[in-house]
Amino acid sequence: MQQKIVKDVLFLQQKSEPATKLDLYLAQDLQDTLLAHQENCMGLAANMIGVRKRVIIFQYGLVPVVMFNPILLSKSSPYQAEEGCLSLSGSRSTTRYQEITVEYLDRNWKLQHMTLNGLPAQICQHELDHLEGILI
How buried is 110 (Cβ within 10 angstroms: 0-12 exposed, 13-18 middle, 19+ buried)? Predict the structure, then answer.
């Protein structure tokens, strides 16, 4: 179900709690909300829809990828990026990494590893920051 985007900075700056299997419903809510904002959004974190759980979604080409309890394992090749966010107005400069590797649980609660490059890596890093309460 599509959810409203949270813009409360104090809420967004709180660290998210680990997700459990009871939070699997968030995959559909995040996917529906991302689809509703597809013109100007490529990723979401659960706290952006009002749930402080460690769950993110981002577009990987045409495929939405949902990650439960993602952990950034490695990063390389830093660069400066200009980013916007549905929860914030305007855009800001931030440091991102060209290549990252992430460990996470998928929708079937199976452990996965994914290496991302370029724009998908940047989007994933933005959403991972949301889980830590870090805003650009």
Answer: exposed
Q: What are 85's two structure tokens?
A: 């966010």
Residues 6+ apart with CB under 8 A from 132: 15, 16
Report pLDDT for 15. 97
Residue 123 tokens read as 């989007």
DSSP H helix total and E strand total for the chain: 3, 5
User: For residue 88, what pLDDT is reported?
Assistant: 86
Q: Which two tokens stand for residue 25?
A: 């419903």
pLDDT at residue number 136: 83
Which two tokens mark 129? 């920051």
Residues of the chain short of pLDDT 50, as ranges, are none
- Catalytic residue numbers, as ranges: 127
* Residue 89 confidence (pLDDT): 84
